[in-house]
């Protein structure tokens, strides 16, 4: 049985006590407490809805991000709910072509009792015995974020939770990577495992759109790609500088007429250490979301770990299939890289690295970032193969001209029913942490 | 002088006094912006500049980054003709209204960063006209700096249509049009080439522009040297016009940032970010004795009745007066000493000596080095309307603190060594 040691990030103040069952009366996010709570609710606009509340003034454009999200975050900071003050952590742009961002943060990764967490399966059923977000105290929640029924966005300071629907919440990340680092937890009471589906990805895109700032991104890590908790969640924060991956050149992937209504533009990342797909456009947020979700679903069902970056206010989405954990388990990553203890999840892949040791921070170079991230990427051949399967899963075909360039042993365009991707991990691959 | 600035005086065409029927999404500008937008050019370049700008050939826009939303404050006749919009539909709006589905997002990011870093950029871009048709333009952006304080006062965006060339990038996409029209174009393109170079075959242009999907399929389109030169020439004409007229008001401009007069100890991109926060607050410098104010928002000036130059450099306690509770002041000082945030209610005085109860919140703000760079204090008049949008005043103040912390930290990651 393969094992790797990994030091995880603690996302909630309640995470350390995951093995002890908690009674209620603790004002948690479980069935016992949440339905009667009165968390504030931000109901984002539904363009198709009528103008029900015409008397109410529209919210200012910076309300969601500045006043609500950052303001509430600052409030939790003053209440001492974070493990450390992230603004006291030194951060810099590493000189180089892309400007990777490095942060020296010695407090982020703290000791924890070892628990086992399989990384050989991207899809794993929700386990209520393990830590999950229903055990989080409500003080860590900033507000509920759900679709409204009005054609403008509304904010209600004390909203009674609807008993028929499981609320979606935005909570603080107690080990923040930057000021304002939060978690979006869709339908928290439904205890969904960490897996993408079209509705929940759409919720994340709506959050990006409501924030209205290209510097507010959302990220997703699948199991096996350094998600730490198997309870569906996205992460988000503001960093007012472009991520290296956002600056990387791209090459458009031309599409045959297959889905002629499809307005989504597909591109491949060029000249970047991690190979990835870029999705843009779509006539609606939902169209873009559905295409990306279907891509992720194919990866999930074929056991390929991946990360998703939602940027440009939900208009540009990056998908990175990865293989770092497997390489780590097979001992294929150099010790020097392992010693920096950077787990390449979505933020690291995008170009934001948190370093634990002063020496690593001082020596941080674009070369180091490139070497680390190159280990994460699928090989060119494997990436092309996966890309072809993904297009098939979406019902699209790459234009023949480009396909002609990549002819190899067999054509990758087999019917999907008989072909399955080779198991990505050796069975029984575990991570100890 | 300002009273003379009615619509006709700033170049609006006399024949479009009534609003045209709007077929598409364009709402008119936010009414609260109308006055600042209309005065933006005249205040700096005098009311004569609009006429002079109208005489410059070419398509260009002028925007004002100091107004919320970074709106357009001038559009040339050539631009309006090219885009199909009327002046009313464009004034006060942000330049992103000309972007559309197939506009490359990475190019949009480059423009955003050039604006933030206050530098010149020349880039090909797919824009959309009012009727929804896309067209390629060479987008040439440059900042205009006020000489006195070194701040960016306007951006100018010159736009030169890029004609299709027989050699475009992404030829594989181009060669794969659907439908007869597209193929016809491809086959005959070489024949039309000489007419292209002369740049004057309207029949051909009709063919070129009719196939939107073909245009949208192009990943990018290179401008010719001629087109780039056209952009530069227009830019120079606009700049010299603005420079000339800025002398009339004494608020001289330049295309280069001159060394700053030292009024502001913080850099321009931080000032611009802070300018977007529409509440009363100031930043003070804790490294100097008496913690002088280095930034004050417009709302602070409105609340207290002071002008900006009366406030900058002043010690941050100056709103206090004879009846301000000394114990509360002591509490504030102790929090600053302990590097904590603090929230109090204290009696403060405006310039006219009237007093008000100030809901006051002060907090340390660190920059990318991790050290405290400023203190932000947020003021709120207790009697002012409260519970806006179901938010307590305190919650709104925290929003200011959060936004300031993000701005200071993020912008100092990229700042040069001499900046804070």
TrEMBL record, chain B:
Entry-linked InterPro entries: PAC, PAS, PAS-like_dom_sf
Is the keyword rRNA processing assigned to this protein? no
Q: A GO molecular function for this record?
A: photoreceptor activity
Q: What region holds the PAS domain?
A: 293-339
| Alphabetical keyword list | Chromophore, Flavoprotein, FMN, Photoreceptor protein, Receptor, Sensory transduction
Q: Could you tell me the Gene Ontology terms of the biological process aspect for this record?
A: response to blue light
What is this protein identified as? Putative LOV domain-containing protein
């Amino acid at each position: 049985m393969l094992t790797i040691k990994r030091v995880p990030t603690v996302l909630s103040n309640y995470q350390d006590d995951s093995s002890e069952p908690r009674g209620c009366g603790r004002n948690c996010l479980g069935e016992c407490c949440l339905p009667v709570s009165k968390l504030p609710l931000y109901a984002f606009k539904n363009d198709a809805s009528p103008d029900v509340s015409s008397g109410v003034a529209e919210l200012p454009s910076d309300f969601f991000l500045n006043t609500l999200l950052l303001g509430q975050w600052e409030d939790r900071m003053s209440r001492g709910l974070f493990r450390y003050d992230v603004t006291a952590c030194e951060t810099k742009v590493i000189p180089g072509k892309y400007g990777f961002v490095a942060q020296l943060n010695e407090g982020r990764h703290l000791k924890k009792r070892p628990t086992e967490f399989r990384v050989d399966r991207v899809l794993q059923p929700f386990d209520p015995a393990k830590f999950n977000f229903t055990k989080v105290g409500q003080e860590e929640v900033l507000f509920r974020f759900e679709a409204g029924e009005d054609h403008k966005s509304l904010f209600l300071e004390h909203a009674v939770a609807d008993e028929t629907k499981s609320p979606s919440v935005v909570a603080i990340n107690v080990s923040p990577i930057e000021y304002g680092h939060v978690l979006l937890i869709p339908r928290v009471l439904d205890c969904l495992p960490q897996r993408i589906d079209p509705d929940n990805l759409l919720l994340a895109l709506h959050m990006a759109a409501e924030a209205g700032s290209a510097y507010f991104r959302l990220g997703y890590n699948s199991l096996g790609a350094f998600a730490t908790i198997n309870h569906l969640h996205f992460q988000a924060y503001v960093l007012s500088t472009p991520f290296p991956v956002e600056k990387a050149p791209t090459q458009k992937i031309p599409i045959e007429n297959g889905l002629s209504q499809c307005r989504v533009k597909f591109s491949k990342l060029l000249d970047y250490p991690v190979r990835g797909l870029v999705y843009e456009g779509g006539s609606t947020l939902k169209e873009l979301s559905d295409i990306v979700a279907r891509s992720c679903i194919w990866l999930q069902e074929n056991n390929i770990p991946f990360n998703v970056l939602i940027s440009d206010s939900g208009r540009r989405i990056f998908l990175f299939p990865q293989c770092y954990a497997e390489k780590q388990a097979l001992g294929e990553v150099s010790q020097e890289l392992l010693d920096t203890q950077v787990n390449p999840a979505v933020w690291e892949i995008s170009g934001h690295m948190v370093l634990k040791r002063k020496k690593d921070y001082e020596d941080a170079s674009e070369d180091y970032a490139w070497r680390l991230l190159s280990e994460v990427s699928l090989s060119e051949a494997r990436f092309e193969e996966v890309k072809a399967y993904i297009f098939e899963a979406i019902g699209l075909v790459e234009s023949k001209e480009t396909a002609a360039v990549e002819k190899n042993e067999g054509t990758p365009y087999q019917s999907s029913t008989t072909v399955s991707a080779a198991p990505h991990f050796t069975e029984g691959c575990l991570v100890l942490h | 002088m300002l009273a003379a600035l009615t619509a006709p005086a700033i170049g609006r065409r006399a024949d479009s006094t009534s609003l045209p029927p709007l077929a598409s999404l364009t709402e008119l500008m936010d009414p609260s912006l109308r006055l600042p937008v209309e005065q933006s050019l005249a205040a700096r370049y005098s009311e004569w500049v609009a006429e002079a700008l109208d005489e410059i050939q070419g398509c260009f826009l002028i925007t004002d980054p100091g107004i919320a939303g970074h709106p357009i404050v001038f559009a040339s006749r050539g631009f309006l003709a090219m885009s199909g919009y009327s002046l009313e539909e464009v004034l006060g709006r942000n330049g992103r209204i000309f972007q559309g589905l197939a506009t490359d997002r990475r190019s949009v990011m480059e423009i955003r960063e050039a604006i933030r870093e206050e530098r010149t950029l020349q880039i090909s871009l797919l824009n959309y006209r009012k009727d929804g048709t896309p067209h390629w333009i060479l987008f040439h952006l440059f900042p205009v700096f006020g000489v006195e304080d070194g701040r960016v006062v306007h951006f100018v965006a010159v736009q030169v249509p890029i004609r299709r060339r027989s050699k475009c990038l992404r030829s594989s996409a181009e060669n794969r049009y659907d439908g007869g029209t597209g193929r016809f174009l491809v086959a005959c393109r070489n024949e039309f080439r000489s007419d292209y170079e002369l740049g004057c075959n309207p029949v051909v242009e009709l063919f070129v522009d009719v196939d939107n999907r073909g245009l949208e399929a192009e990943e990018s389109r290179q401008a010719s040297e001629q087109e780039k030169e056209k952009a530069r020439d227009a830019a120079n004409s606009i700049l010299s016009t603005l420079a000339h007229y800025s002398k009339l008001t004494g608020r001289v401009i330049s295309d280069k940032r001159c060394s700053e007069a030292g009024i502001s100890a913080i850099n321009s991109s931080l000032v611009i970010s802070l300018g977007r926060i529409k509440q009363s607050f100031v930043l003070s410098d804790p490294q100097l004795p008496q913690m002088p104010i280095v930034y004050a928002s417009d709302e602070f000036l409105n609340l207290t009745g002071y002008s900006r130059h009366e406030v900058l450099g002043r010690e941050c306690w100056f709103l206090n007066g004879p009846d301000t509770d000394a114990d509360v002041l002591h509490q504030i000082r102790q929090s600053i000493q302990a590097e904590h945030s603090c929230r109090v209610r204290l009696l403060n005085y405006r310039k006219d000596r009237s007093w008000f109860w100030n809901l006051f919140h002060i907090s340390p703000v660190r920059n990318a080095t991790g050290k405290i760079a400023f203190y932000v204090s947020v003021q709120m008049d207790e009697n002012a309307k409260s519970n806006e949008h179901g938010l307590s005043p305190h919650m709104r103040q925290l929003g200011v603190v959060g936004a300031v912390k993000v701005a200071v930290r993020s912008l100092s990651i990229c700042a040069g060594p001499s900046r804070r």
